[in-house]
Write a structure and sequence with these properties.
Layout (H helix, E strand, L loop, with lengths): L4 E7 L7 E9 L6 E4 H6 L6 E7 L5 E13 L2 E10 L6 E2 L1 H7 L1 E4 L4 E4 L10 H8 L3
Parallel strand pairs: 2-7, 3-6
Antiparallel strand pairs: 1-2, 1-5, 4-5, 5-6, 8-9
C-alpha cells in the first residue's frame, strides 16, 4: 500500500473551538494510535491522561509516551480518540483507531479516505431481546 498524508484539525474535547490545524499526518493503518506533536496538543490545552504507556516502534525499539483525549476532524469525518503526545523525532501519524472512529476505509490508489458506508451490527432476535430484559 502506498503512503499518503492528510490534513486534520485536532480540538480540545472540553472546548471544541480550541483547535489546531495539522497539515501533514501520515495515514498509517499499521499504527494503533494517532500521534500528534506534544507542542500542538499543548497549544489547545490537551493534557496527558495516561503517562508512560509502552509502545514498540517499527524497528523493534521499546519507548514510552503519554496519551490524552482529543477531538479529530478531517473533511466530513470526525471522532474522539486517544492520541499519543509525540516527541521531537516521532512521526505525526493518523492511526487505525482514528480511522475506525471516522468510519472510513483507505483508498490506496486515490490516496484518500473514503466513507465505509453503513456500520455492521449484530441483530437481536425477538427471543434474545426478551431474555435480555428479564429480571431475575
Amino acid at each position: 500500500m502506498g503512503t499518503f498524508y492528510i490534513s486534520c484539525q485536532v480540538a480540545n474535547i472540553a472546548h471544541p473551538k480550541k483547535e489546531v490545524p495539522l497539515s501533514k499526518l501520515l495515514v498509517d493503518t499499521g499504527s494503533e494510535y494517532t500521534w500528534i506533536p506534544e507542542k500542538d496538543l499543548a497549544k489547545i490545552h490537551i493534557l496527558p491522561q495516561k503517562k508512560d504507556m509502552a509502545f514498540v516502534m517499527a524497528n523493534g525499539q521499546h519507548i514510552t509516551r503519554s496519551v490524552g483525549y482529543a477531538l479529530l476532524r478531517s473533511g466530513e469525518f470526525e471522532t474522539v480518540d486517544e492520541v499519543v503526545f509525540a516527541q521531537p523525532g516521532d512521526l505525526s501519524l493518523l492511526g487505525a483507531r482514528t480511522l475506525e472512529g471516522f468510519a472510513v476505509v483507505v483508498d490506496p490508489r486515490k490516496k484518500k479516505l473514503v466513507a465505509a458506508g453503513p456500520l455492521p451490527v449484530a441483530p437481536a432476535t425477538h427471543k434474545e431481546v426478551l431474555l435480555s430484559c428479564t429480571i431475575f
